[in-house]
Design goal:
Its EC number is 3.2.1.4. With about 210 residues, this protein is mostly helical. The chain has 6 helices and 4 strands; from the N terminus they run ββαββααααα.
C-alpha cells in the first residue's frame, strides 16, 4: 500500500496525477483502476477493524491518504485530467469515439464480415457506429497525451481486466450502497492485521 503514495517515490506519476505502474508502457488505466480498488478495499478493512493508519518504514500513514489516492485515480479516469476527458465511453460530454472494438466499430448493415473484412472499419476515421457504453479504454500515455485513433489499440482498446478493476473501485468507493455493502462483516473471514495474543499459561502449581 505504501508504494501507491507519491511521497514514497516508488512509482512515477503523470503531471496530471495518474500513477504509472506499467513502467512507462501503454494502457496505464487498467493498472490504475485496479490499484484504486485494492487501496479502497484496504481502507475499508482498516476502518472495519478500527485501525486509523499504519507505518511505511518509520513514517506513519493515515488511511485517509490511501483513500485520497484511490479517489484521485478514479476521478482522473472519469475526467479530472489535463484533457478534461472521460476515458469511459458514454460518461460525460467528452469521451473516446473511436474505440478499438470489433462490435462497436462495424455497422449493422446485413453483411457478415471476416476478420480481414473488418479491417476497413477499423481503419476508417469515422466515429464508431455503436457506443460501447461503460467501457474504459487503454487511456493516455505517460505525458497525459491521448489519441482517439482506433488502429492504435494502446490508447483506445478496452480490456476485461481494466473494466473489472474500475467497476470494483467504483463499488468500493461509492457511499450509495446503503445496507447492500456491510463493511463490518465483508471482512469477517480476514485475519486481523496484528497477531492474536497467545493463550494464558496454565495456573502455577507448586
Amino acid at each position: 500500500m505504501c508504494s501507491y503514495l507519491k511521497k514514497y517515490n516508488v512509482y512515477n506519476f503523470t503531471k496530471g496525477g495518474l500513477i504509472l505502474m506499467n513502467h512507462g508502457g501503454p494502457q496505464n488505466l487498467q493498472y490504475a483502476a485496479n490499484a484504486a480498488f485494492i487501496a479502497s478495499v484496504f481502507v475499508d478493512y482498516m476502518n472495519a477493524t478500527g485501525v486509523p493508519g499504519w507505518y511505511c518504514g518509520t513514517q506513519y500513514t493515515g488511511a485517509d491518504e490511501l483513500h485520497k489516492f484511490a479517489t484521485s485515480q478514479v476521478d482522473y479516469i472519469l475526467g479530472a485530467n489535463p484533457r478534461k476527458m472521460s476515458y469511459v465511453v458514454g460518461y460525460g460530454e467528452k469521451f473516446p469515439k473511436h474505440v478499438h472494438h470489433r462490435g462497436a466499430s462495424i455497422p449493422l448493415d446485413g453483411h457478415k464480415y471476416t476478420c480481414r473484412g473488418g479491417f476497413k472499419w477499423r481503419d476508417t476515421q469515422n466515429s464508431n457506429p455503436h457506443n460501447l457504453t461503460g467501457a474504459m479504454v487503454g487511456g493516455p500515455d505517460r505525458f497525459d497525451k491521448f489519441q482517439d485513433f482506433r488502429p492504435n489499440y494502446n490508447y483506445t482498446e478496452p480490456s476485461l481486466a481494466g473494466n473489472a478493476g474500475l467497476v470494483a473501485a467504483l463499488v468500493s468507493l461509492t457511499t450509495s450502497g446503503g445496507s447492500i455493502i456491510d463493511k463490518n462483516t465483508m471482512f469477517s473471514g480476514v485475519p486481523p492485521l496484528s497477531p492474536t495474543s497467545p493463550p494464558p499459561p496454565p495456573p502455577w502449581k507448586p
